[in-house]
Fold this protein.
Amino acid sequence: MIRKRREIRELFDTGKPEEMLEYIQIYATSVESPDEKDKSSQKAWELYQYLERNREGLLPYDKRGIKIAAPPEGILYKRMCAGKSELYGDHAEDEEPKDALVGKRSQ
């Protein structure tokens, strides 16, 4: 399963949402089991449905052609992401953000 997660993440990181969704679909179908204790397929379908519902946000704003206003004087935009793990790291519930989304420019 770790290899599958890495492959899914690679497709996400390289901006291939269609291929990623197809990969998850194929995986979910391939691990279907009559064993009710095996939740692999169910979890994969839940991931697929979540990503499908949020398809628009799978690509960064700049790759979708969205332009944002220039920051006010003295302000620097950082880490323009929406993912909780991007802000908080692997232990999202335990840590403060690694850095602010908006900060002061270095002189």
